[in-house]
Amino acid sequence: MIDAHADQDWRAWFAEHGARLRLIARQWTRSEADADDVVQEAFVRFWKHQRHLPGDPNALVVTSIRRAALDLLRRTDRRSGREQAVAAEAETMTWFEPEADPCQQALIQSLALLSAEQREVVVLKVWGELTFDQIGEKLQVSPNTAASRWRYAMEALRKHITARAHD
Amino acid sequence: MTDPDHDLTSALASLRPRPPGPAVTAALARELDPPAARRGVILAWSTGLAAAAALVLGLYLGVAPAEAPAPSYQLVRAEQSPANVEVLRPVRLDDGSFARPVRVRWDSTTQWEDPRSRTRFINFRPNETTTLLPLETY
Question: CB-CB: which of B11, B28, B32 is closest to A107?
Answer without folding.
Answer: B11
